[in-house]
Amino acid sequence: MNDFRNVPEDRLLYLAKGGNKKACAELSRRYSLGIPPFKKDNIKALYWEQRSEDDFVAYSDANIIEDSFVNKMDTKECEQAYDWAITPDKNKHEYIIGIDFGHGETSAAYCSIGWGIAIGELKDPIDVDFGSNRKVIPSAINIMPDGQVYIGESAFSPERLKKADVEVCFKKKPENIDGEKEQLMIRFMHEVYKLIRERVGASLTNENHLVYIATPSGWKDEGTINLYGQMARKAGLPIAGITTESRAAFINAQQDVSSGLPQYVNQGAIVFDMGSSTLDFTYLKEGSRPIDFGYDCGASRVEKIMYEDIRNHNEDIRSFENKYPRLIADLLFKARCAKEAIYFDPEIRFKRTYNFEDIVDDEEFEDSKIKFVFQPGDLNQILEEKGYISEIRKAMIDFKENHIHNAPINAAFLTGGASRMNFIQELLEDCWRLPKDLVYRDQDPSLTISRGITVSGRGDIRSGGKGKTKHMFNEIMNKVDVYTPFINSLCEKVSDEIQATIATCVTNFRDNDTDVSLNDLQAYIEDNIGNDIHQIGAWAVECYKDAFEKQTENVRIELDRIVSNYSKQSITMKNGNVSILTSLPNIDLSLITNQMNQLGSSFTDDSFLKELAPDLAIGALGGVIAAILGGPLGLLIGGGMFLYRHIFGEEETEEQKRQKAMAKDLDKEQRQKVFDEFNQKWDSICTKIQAAVDRAIRNNKALRLSIQEQSQSVINDYVQECIRQTRLMFD
């Protein structure tokens, strides 16, 4: 039977942290069941269960140990959940490939990881040429009866369409790895990766590279990301991590010095991702979490509207559909090609004709064709009439009003080939009041994401983040130890001040113009040490600030190193000179200050003084002197003939002798001898002072726990403060 079931929570925690195994077991039970005030937490339950079974040493910092355990378990669980991710190896992996598996089109880029190479010397990603100088291929797949697979434009070959159907628009949020769409995606991933290997050539061997991919911003839950990673691994990709498309766009944009990215993000900016299936917005503002939202008005709607408009005026197309429904995807693809050509140069007339006899061998359609003819502005007019442009306008207004609540929008970063559609700029000016000079877009927006994936993957690998930088930051914070340098500094400060006080007092005693007694010296020392003790609170605050700033300087350096891996310009954190007073105004140090002041107050009573002289009963301050000097002051300097000849009478008791010795006014020669006695014993006195201070301060368990807990919280705030202006650098 557990005797601790009725123990109050505070008492239970106290006993558990002290190493009571039954208390640990009861704490584990309460965590596992979620008995108030403890929330259900299986990891913490496991921690305390282990403590109930192990030989447990009492730790005053049990909370810190518990938190560290939880972080490690968090990381372990993550690594288990993401067992598809390959761990980068410096001795093995040389290249990183970033692949943008889009709903409508797919692109890829690669670059050297650059282990050990300076940031400024890293090469830009190289776009993969899929053949005939094509950097983008349609996300389409055709699986022939014999198992042969064709992807991209080759999937629409008339000869192949006669034998098998082309599949498009199969990318979706994964739900079941064995699902039809998921299996198509896996096969497409495999074929794209195979083609990349073929096109890049000998640079890529079977073992020398890793792959990163990305998900739409709306795929937020861990289960979806995990499943997508499993799909990539099943497809044969040496997958190392998954990032988000908005993060990839952000990182790619900041590679361009002309983008003004840091300034815009500080003020508020939007990543505008016009994809094939969805229109996704990500709002970025310094000090705020990114805000994501997607709308079902992707650019694939445009070719469908184009196709429907032509179809409604062409009986041959409707007849063709009825007879060959599986070939509608091919006609839509031709509409898509027309759309891309129109918006590539919207100021010129576009005309293109496709003969049905080139698609099927059927005399019925020997003279049938689908013709795309558009004058400048025609397509925009059709899209306006059909309500598509109005739908995008509503999405932009909705995002501004209902998701970012009219927060300032100072710039937009456009991604996706569809962002070329010229009506987008008009909408940006109309809905978000953004002129052209505040809109950033790659020269080739179709490649924005794949380039960004490649750079972010390289950054993650070089930083050791493995795509899960949360745990990397936990590791950084867990390395920071403020308590040890703080307590060392404080003990040294208190010891030095007390030593200096005694030295000054003894020197002044020697040099006094009038004769004074040892009682006067003792009172003088007592008063001045008392003044020192009253300052411990202030000293402690300064020691803490100094320790914190020195320790977090290493954090800043590490964060700079991490951030620079994602930036061609090798940017650094804006908090270049770390100061918790000037650089971190949002951090509240009041708890630390109050704790230090309480520390100082505790030393002004007898507790500190008694700690200095634990075995003496002659009064607190007198005990300090005795402990410091190795015995009562009179006896210390009376160890030789000096006191017997000049101070003590022959018939008096030892106590009487001591009292008379302490009360006797000493002349200059006698005071010099007292000074000399101090000087001879000075090293021993300093050692005693240091030991007494250490006992009083280092044994303060409440102080240790408070400093550790509060410092961890402050350091966490510090890290968040440091990275907030580069939020999307990290997952």
Tell me what the structure shows.
The protein is α/β, with parallel strands linked by helices and 731 residues long. Among the domains are: 9-81, no CATH class; 480-724, no CATH class. It is 53% helix and 11% strand. The strands form four sheets. Strands 1, 2, 3, 4, 8 and 9 form a six-stranded mixed β-sheet that branches. Helix 21 (590-603) runs antiparallel to helix 29 (701-723). The model is unreliable at 56-81, 569-587 and 609-649 (pLDDT under 50).
Which features would summarize this protein structure in a list?
five-stranded mixed β-sheet; alpha/beta; six-stranded mixed β-sheet; elongated; 11% strand
Main pleated sheet: 6 strands, mixed
> What's the pLDDT, averaged over the residues?
78
Number of helices: 29
Give the N-to-C terminal Cα separation.
Answer: 47 Å
Structural class: alpha/beta
Radius of gyration from the alpha-carbon trace, in angstroms:
38 Å
Unreliable spans: 56-81, 569-587, 609-649
Shape: elongated
Strand content: 5-15%
Per DSSP E runs of 2 or more residues, the count of β-strands stands at 16
Helix content: 40-55%
Question: Summed up, what is this model?
Answer:
By secondary structure, the chain is α/β, with parallel strands linked by helices. The protein has 29 helices and 16 strands.
Give the topology, please.
Layout lengths: L8 H9 L3 H13 L8 H12 L8 H20 L13 E7 L3 E8 L13 E2 L8 E3 L1 E4 L5 E3 L6 H4 L4 E3 L11 H21 L8 E7 L6 H13 L4 E6 H9 L7 H7 L1 E6 L4 E6 L6 E5 L4 H12 L3 H9 L4 H17 L5 E6 L13 E6 L3 H8 L2 H16 L8 E4 L7 H10 L6 E3 L6 H16 L5 H11 L3 H29 L6 H17 L1 H29 L25 H14 L2 H7 L7 H10 L3 H5 L3 H6 L7 H10 L4 H13 L1 H17 L2 H23 L8
Helix pairs in contact: 1-2, 2-3, 3-4, 8-16, 10-12, 14-15, 16-20, 18-19, 18-20, 18-27, 18-28, 20-21, 20-29, 21-29, 22-23, 22-28
